[in-house]
Amino acid sequence: MDHSGIFLAFALVGAVAFVGAIAKRFNISSVIAFVIAGVAIGLVPIVPVVHIEPEIVLMLLLPPLLYSAGVGMSWRGLKYNIGTISFLAIGGVIFTALGVAYVLNTLFGIDWLIGLLLGAIIAPPDAVAPMAIVKRLVVPDRLVTIIEGEGLVNDATALILIGFTVSALQGGDLSLLSAAGRFTLIVVGEIAWGMAVGRLLLELRKLARDPHVEIILSLMTPFLAFWVPQAIGGSGVLAAVAAGVYVSWNGPRYIAPATRLQGYFAWDLVTYVIEAVAFFLTGLQVRTIIESADMGIWTHYLAVAVTTGLIVIVLRFLWVFAGTFLPKLAARRFGFGPTLRWRYAAVISVTGVRGVVSLLAALSIPDLIASDGSNAKPMLLVVTLCVIIASMIGVDAVLPSIVRRLGLANEGAAEASEKRSREIQARLDAVQKVLSELETFNEGTWTAESLAELRRKHEDRHILYKRIQHNREEGSANSDYPEIQLRLIEVERQEIASLYAEQRLDDEARRRIERELDLEDTRLRHIIQGST
Fold first, then answer.
1. Which stretch of DSSP H or E encloses residue 507?
2. What is the mean pLDDT of each run of 10 residues along the chain (532 residues)?
3. HSE toward the beta carbon, residue 8, CA cutoff 13 A
4. Which of 138, 342, 361, 512 has a 20 to 30 A CA-CA distance from 449?
5. Alpha helix (H) ranges present in 293-407?
6. Under the phi-then-psi rule, with left for phi > 0, alpha for psi from -120 to 50, and beta for the rest, what region is 290?
7. Dihedrals phi, psi of 369, to nearest 5 degrees
């Protein structure tokens, strides 16, 4: 990388930090802010055009995002909703791609295969953008699980379908039977490979017993899971997700507490930066796409884009509601699990935000000659970008009001309150178990002073949780213990700083005390966040 490349990378990270701070300050969706900022900066004439290699970006940015989302998913929720997720992520993508191809062929005379390719590119809702919008709202857990699960799995369906279609356009054979067989093989193989990679890396992390080495191995996991199947003709998407889900479910048996604490911070930073860069690059590609297209046929491109955007919305509503209102017996018989409530279906229909994977897929398509002799790639790029930006802005604008009008905000708040009550009861049960275990400790083996001090400590914790539980049952305010303790920590922190300034404390001791105070500060803020 030359100096200009280093400067651009530095400027991009700086812009991410600045825009992220602005979005936080004004409570704007960071995804929307990054895309809009990318578009605005990219259109400035003095800013150099940023060309990206789609394959490189896909292989570097996508695996960590998929893996991290897999780690954060509820395994129980995924199993419970696997039928609904599969219905949306596999059937929904194929249905949308076919519908787009039919409409564009009928209205604009666009080749069937070109239309199918465009449909496959813009069919899958993004794995990141919808969650960035949904998680700003308080909605029921099942709704979040379905939206997140669909976003993680549908990319695999789309990328495989894109590969089949491009092959057919370049003279290959598009046999439905062979395509279905290959698709099944890819799905089963990637899930197995992802789980194997997750198990292997967990075993290596257990052998390492060093937080730094373990975090390095954790950062390697998504790339190992993704790159191998992607290199041999698969998508790599399901492998990365499967690795993340496996690590999440089995990690507590392998990963030490110190590693988990550092891993939370490391992965939180990594995913934030990657998401921000990905959406910033999405916005920056506007200028590249504008320059790649013939301005004389932009009216045609925009007409295709508007039509495609509208038909995608209609097809998603049709597919989601068709799946919702299938007879319950038939749905369960075919493995689709519990059917959706119509309110959930309405929200899921709206959350079809297209994102980074669609753009990268469009950019990675080679030049394709349509039946009229024109290059189809400029149209694919323009339509894809228009659908992405319109869906992001549109969903962010309408989803909060839809959630409120359907009463799902209240339902989500009630569910969150119930979960919090169960959490407090679980904490009480765990502390009570600790107190019971302390009674079995022999004072001949352990010092009486230590046992008495630990008993007082855990009794105080039990009293705190009982007080929080009582306040919640009475509908009164939560305990103000964490807020008081945070103020006292700040007093202690200032005193430590004064002692250090007076040279009554050395550097190593100051850092050790500050780390302990930081951990306690973080613990208390975590309690406050959970209580709200």
1. helix 507-531
2. 69 88 85 86 80 79 89 83 88 94 93 92 84 80 88 86 84 70 87 95 91 93 94 88 92 85 88 86 79 71 92 93 66 53 88 83 79 79 89 86 88 86 90 91 83 90 84 71 87 92 89 89 77 57
3. 16
4. 512
5. 298-324, 328-333, 342-350, 356-364, 377-405
6. alpha
7. -95, 120
CB-side neighbour CA atoms (13 Å) of 216 = 7
Burial class (CB in 10 A: 0-12, 13-18, 19+), 283: buried
Quote the DSSP letter at residue 88.
Answer: I
Instruction: Report H helices in 170-251.
Output: 176-208, 211-231, 237-250
* Structure token digits, residue 103: 């409409």
Encoded tokens for 263: 């891993």
Per-residue buried b or exposed e for 417-428, using 16+ beta carbons within 10 Å of the residue's own CB: eeebeeebeebb
The answer to whether 122 and 128 have CB atoms below 8 angstroms apart is: no
Closest by CA position to 148, among listed 93, 63, 94, 78: 78
Within 10 angstroms of residue 517's Cβ, the number of other Cβ atoms is: 15
Q: What are phi and psi of 375, to 5 degrees?
A: -80, 125
Residue 137: burial class (beta carbons within 10 Å; 0-12, 13-18, 19+): middle
505's CB contacts (< 8 A; 6+ apart) are 496, 499, 513
Cα→Cα distances 343→45, 109, 132, 145, 316, Å: 46, 37, 20, 15, 15
The amino acid occupying position 197 is V
Angstrom distances, CA of residue 412 to CA of 298, 340, 421: 44, 16, 14
Bridge partners of 369, per DSSP, are 375
CB atoms inside a 10 Å sphere around CB 479: 20
- What's the pTM value of the predicted model, to 2 decimals? 0.81
Residue 520 to residues 135, 151, 262, 460, 513: CA-CA distances in angstroms? 26, 36, 15, 16, 11
> Comparing C-alpha atoms, which of 310, 391, 313 is closest to residue 355?
391
Q: 113: Cβ–Cβ under 8 A, 6 or more apart, which residues?
A: 101, 165, 168, 169, 174
Tell me the C-alpha distance between 269 and 275, whole Å.
10
**Helix, strand, coil % in the chain, rounded to nearest 5:** 80, 0, 20
Eight-class DSSP state of 446 = S
DSSP state of 441: S
